[in-house]
């Protein structure tokens, strides 16, 4: 193994120390002022990184001096002018330093502060891993909550609010099922860097739910936020839940053959699509996960009955890509831009965390989508994506 250590890298690492120290002090003060637990976690991480970086920079300097001495004696120069590691310990110290720099970039990215400019010199895979871990750790803490959907006038901020007001009495089977299902739902909601599901239920009416799906990666829904309203009617659990998509741009966007512009969700579990229907062992979690995994797929065009047979053909693939171009545009406008400008008060913590931590990744995604938009839709897509990028930069 060959390792080439250049002077500029040592200088860069030492310069990072003062930046880390200042960043730790900022978050320590923020925690002291507000009691914000996330600020405490970040401050703790930064202090730990600072300590490790000091140790590794010292090892780095010692190793550099040792190598310089041996080079002067002519013992370690080879034909490529590269320097062979003196010993295993020195090599490990150098590699550890690179990992620590990766951690610094991760903390910097998640806290919207920049400590290192030369990210190309960093072990990016390690930085991404740390970012994913931080994202998932925080999101798991907020994936479920009880809130108040009721307005001051007594109505509910919910698409099924009027029906819920008419059905005030809760039947015993429904109450028993809710008592069993809600705790299980809270503990088992999928939470992953690639896609997650978040739920809010009314404090008084646990049969009124809102859930938010983050569009799965490698689909035209990727990183978009899709809000649904769900109601468990008086017939529940004998009958399936009622469910509507709220993210439609006020009826402008049809996101899928199974997701109508009027909010209708076509799913066999809901009794609105062909296939195995609602059974005595079916759950609301199954409904949410089915929408996430069976409807929000990479090629939704083929969800349309009869279209699957054209998959793999030139005409079918072209039609699918054309369909996806429209979905990507809708995702940018209604599932990203709208939530950045008008975040739901029930999911504001989810929305801000998602877009803040994944900001750079989403910007890269939008640029990639823009290149695939084509001449006919490039103008509209470019305008929408630029607006989203500006909103992301303001976070």
TrEMBL record:
Transferase recorded as keyword: yes
Annotated keywords: Transferase, Ubl conjugation pathway
One Gene Ontology term of the molecular function aspect: transferase activity
Annotated InterPro entries: UBC, UBQ-conjugating_enzyme/RWD
Superkingdom to which the source organism belongs: Eukaryota
Chain ranges of the UBC core domain: 173-336
Protein name, per record: UBC core domain-containing protein
């Amino acid at each position: 193994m060959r390792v080439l250590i250049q002077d500029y890298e040592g200088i860069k690492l030492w310069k990072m120390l003062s930046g880390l120290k200042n960043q730790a002090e900022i978050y320590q003060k923020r925690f002291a002022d507000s009691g914000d637990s996330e600020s405490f976690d970040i401050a703790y991480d930064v202090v730990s990184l600072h300590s490790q970086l000091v140790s590794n920079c010292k090892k780095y300097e010692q190793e550099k001096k040792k190598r310089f001495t041996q080079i002067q004696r002519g013992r370690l120069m080879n034909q490529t002018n590269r320097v062979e590691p003196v010993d295993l310990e020195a090599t490990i110290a150098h590699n550890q330093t690179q990992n620590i720099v990766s951690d610094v970039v991760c903390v910097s990215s998640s806290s919207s502060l920049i400590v290192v400019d030369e990210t190309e010199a960093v072990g990016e895979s390690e930085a991404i891993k740390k970012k994913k871990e931080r994202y998932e750790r925080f999101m798991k803490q907020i994936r479920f909550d009880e809130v108040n959907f009721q307005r001051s006038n007594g109505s509910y901020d919910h698409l099924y609010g009027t029906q819920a007001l008419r059905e005030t009495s809760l039947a015993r089977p429904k109450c028993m099922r809710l008592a069993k299902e809600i705790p299980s739902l809270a503990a088992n909601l999928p939470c992953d860097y690639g896609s997650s599901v978040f739920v809010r239920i009314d404090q008084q009416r646990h049969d009124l739910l809102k859930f938010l799906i983050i569009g799965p990666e490698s689909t035209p829904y990727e990183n978009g936020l899709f809000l649904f309203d769900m109601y468990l009617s008086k017939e529940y659990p004998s009958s399936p839940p009622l469910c509507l998509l709220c993210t439609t741009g006020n009826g402008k966007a049809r996101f899928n053959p199974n997701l109508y512009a009027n909010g209708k969700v076509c799913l066999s579990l809901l009794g609105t699509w062909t296939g195995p229907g609602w059974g005595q062992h079916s759950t609301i979690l199954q409904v949410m996960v089915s929408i996430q995994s069976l409807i929000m797929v990479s090629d939704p065009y083929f969800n349309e009955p009869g279209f699957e047979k054209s998959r793999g053909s030139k005409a079918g693939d072209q039609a699918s890509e054309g369909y996806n171009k429209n979905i990507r545009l809708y995702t940018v406008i209604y599932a990203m831009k709208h939530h950045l400008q008008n975040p739901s008060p029930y999911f504001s913590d989810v929305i801000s965390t998602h877009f803040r931590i994944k900001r750079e990744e989403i910007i890269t995604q939008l640029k990639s989508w823009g290149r695939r938009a084509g001449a006919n839709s490039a103008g509209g897509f470019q305008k929408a994506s630029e607006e989203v990028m500006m909103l992301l930069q303001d976070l």
